[in-house]
Amino acid sequence: MKLKDREIKALLFDMDGTMFDTENLSVIAWQEVSKSLGLEIDPGFIVSCMGLTSRLIKEKYIKDYGNIVPYEVFRERELKFMQDWVDKNGVPIKAGLAETLEFARKNGLKCGVATSSMNQRAMYSIERSGLIQYFDVIITGDMCEKSKPEPDIYLLASNRIGVDIKECAVFEDSHNGIISASRSGAYAILIPDVVPVDDEMKEAADMTLSRLDDIIPFLS
Question: Is 204 in contact with 181 (CB distance < 8 Å)?
């Protein structure tokens, strides 16, 4: 299918903040857990971690807060907060995701996930969403040595899905994510979420949309 004169054969999705409304949930989790541990974490620090692998988040946390509360203690409580929330309420699916995936299936477009989250957490969320059957490949943060904003995760996803990266459209919400998508050579689509859109994000994005299924008219 054509998208702005580019042939598109696959759609690749970031997970947190793009497929699922988990970035907002993550902010709440960080705030609640830090409060319970008597730790004051700057909201800007939380936003700066979005799109990074767990390894890089750990490094940033230890640098700024490691001497106060051990990262392992904080991370365990944060993950438990989020899992308890999802167990009770279900995965918060972003508007237009199901419609976009169904459109892709009907029109022969392959679909993949490329998330900085670790495999266990990613698979738990995708399986709980009830949408796992739509994806031909799921690439997680522990499969790549280099994290977003490096392009490695999208290059690996395109390789595994069997579609040249220039024939892939990528959906992202974060600063690190949209830079990663742009550097990979994919058609980079920004769907803003928690992270404020800055000039670098605007420049990296080939298109900016309000919700995922806004892409459908451009592919039809």
Answer: yes
Q: What is the pLDDT of residues 81-137, one digit of tens each?
A: 988 998 999 999 999 999 999 999 999 999 999 999 989 989 999 999 999 999 999
Mean pLDDT of the chain: 93
What is the C-alpha radius of gyration for the chain, rounded to an integer number of angstroms? 17
The overall pTM is greater than 0.70 = yes
What are phi and psi for residue 112, nearest 5 degrees?
-145, 160
Cβ neighbours of residue 49 closer than 8 Å, sequence gap 6 or more: 56, 57, 60
- Strand (E) or helix (H) holding 112: strand 110-114
* Rounded Cα distance, 124 and 120, in Å: 6
User: Which SS3 state, helix, strand or coil, does residue 165 take?
Assistant: helix
For 139-173, b/e burial (b = at least 16 CB within 10 A) is bbbebbeebbbbbbbbbbbbeebebebebbbbbbb
